[in-house]
Write a structure and sequence with these properties.
Rossmann fold, six-stranded parallel sheet, alpha/beta, 305 residues, 2 domains, Dihydrodipicolinate Reductase, domain 2, 9 helices
């Protein structure tokens, strides 16, 4: 198997590590934008996109800055191989024509939102359709952590997360929460959003986001931030007769002080499950799970609707 990687930052390297655990014999090529870029063991650097066709790539991973995704996808779709695209697909909505082009060409795509593979979220996705006797009244989502802790060896002010021109901002960086809500409940009737950057981090990208998604019979309230020191990632489902408290970091669900679901799996474990799914789906020509079209629907919820 021959795999092309575009973007060898922290997430790109994480995907490479995952591939090596699943496909030890895979040949990995990195399309680099700067001559004499750093060499990494087991990765062959290429600098001319014309070399891609001669390599016969099985699939590509797009993991460069969000703002560069559109250009990269445009560059790669001519080859027709499957695309594993790091979330989000882009930092603006001016990609509708590109999304349609990818769809019309029949290119296999998956946009990497690994929380769909977290066991507690999968449990909810399986159980909700079966709970006909329960009325869902309210949903609350919270995700807060401290941006400087994300990449301790790097000044957080210089990362794409802190810079809107690179596609950064908590609303789009933590689009995972919007994605799994879209997976669970579909497209909302309407969206209200509040985005701010007034915290002590003093960055130009948004560091706070609040969304209210309106569905038939209930609303979803979402709070995202970059500045919480004690990380919290939670989902709350308020039914007519009970409340489910889901802790994504612990991968467990509590109801009335009783644990109704628990898993030893952690979010870091989902990267391997996600990549294994993509490789299997690519081989089976199954292109129905979080395609570029799905990701564009989520991006519209995130940015405008």
């Amino acid at each position: 198997m021959k795999i092309l990687v575009v973007g060898l930052g922290s997430i790109g390297k994480k995907h490479v590590k995952t591939i090596r655990s699943l496909q030890p014999q895979a040949e990995i090529f990195a399309l680099r934008s700067i001559r004499n870029s750093k060499m990494y063991p087991g990765i062959t650097n290429i600098y001319n996109p014309d070399e891609i066709e001669s390599i016969v790539i099985d699939f590509a991973i797009i993991a460069n800055p969000t703002s560069e995704h559109k250009k990269t996808i445009e560059q790669l779709i001519q080859y027709g191989f499957p695309l594993f695209i790091e979330k989000p697909i882009h930092s603006s909505l001016d990609i509708e024509d590109l999304v349609n082009s990818v769809k019309n060409k029949g290119i296999h795509t998956y946009v990497a939102c690994n929380l769909r593979f977290l066991n507690c979220i999968k449990f909810i996705n399986e159980k909700l359709p079966l709970m006909q006797n329960k009325k869902l009244n309210e949903v609350n989502v919270y995700c807060g952590s401290y941006l400087p802790d994300w990449r301790p060896s790097i000044d957080f002010r210089n990362t794409y997360s802190a810079n809107p021109e690179l596609g950064g901002g908590v609303h789009i960086d933590l689009i995972h929460e919007l994605d799994y809500l879209y997976w669970l409940f579909g497209i909302p009737k309407s969206v209200t959003r509040k985005l701010k950057n007034q915290s002590s981090l003093a960055i130009s990208a948004f560091d706070f986001a609040n969304y209210i998604l309106d569905y038939d019979g209930f609303c979803v309230n979402i709070v995202l931030n970059y500045y919480r020191r004690d990380s919290k990632r939670s989902l709350e489902l308020v039914f007519n007769d009970e409340t489910w408290e889901i802790d994504l970091l612990k991968n467990q669900i509590i109801c009335n002080s009783r644990t109704i679901f628990s898993s030893e799996q952690r979010i870091a474990d989902t990267y391997q499950t996600q990549m294994a799914y993509f490789i299997d789906s690519m081989n089976e020509k199954n292109n129905t799970f979080n395609t570029i079209s799905d990701a564009y629907n989520v991006l519209k919820i995130c940015l405008d609707q």
